[in-house]
Amino acid sequence: MFSLLGIDNELEQLYEEAQQNKVAVLKARWTNGNYGCCSTRAPLVEKYRIEYTPEKKTLYLWGKLAVTIDQATQQAEISSEYSPSNYEKKVITWFSERAKRS
Questions:
Q1: What is the pTM of this model?
Q2: Domain range for 75
Q3: 74 beta partners
């Protein structure tokens, strides 16, 4: 279902890893503009991080807190300081729905 939204399968694997290990991180190369002469030499940065505790589940995108799910109420709180892209909105929606199922 989420593949129709364009959500990467790697997110599902990351979520499952976070359930087992309490924290899961996926790093990727990301540059804002050009990084020297070759973008392939850009440093790895944290693309997604999921933290899983008995009280809450959190999703970080590019190192910034994006959404927190309260385990008791299943309420999602999107960080007011995070301005997601359209794709990131889909990721947040996926994470919120996935957290409610587990």
A1: 0.80
A2: 2-101
A3: none
Tokens 């939204």 appear where? 5
Q: At what angle do helices 9-21 and 86-101 cross, to 10 degrees?
A: 50
Euclidean distance between CA atoms 8 and 42, whole angstroms: 22
7: number of Cβ within 10 Å: 18
Q: What is the mean pLDDT of each run of 10 residues along the chain (102 residues)?
A: 58 92 86 55 81 94 93 90 88 90 78
Q: Please give the DSSP secondary-structure letter assigned to residue 67.
A: E
Q: Which long-range contacts (CB under 8 A, 24 or more apart) does 57-62 make?
A: 57/18, 57/95, 57/99, 59/91, 59/92, 59/95, 61/88, 61/91, 61/92, 62/30
Domain count, the chain: 1
* pLDDT tens digit sequence for 83-101: 888 888 999 999 999 988 8
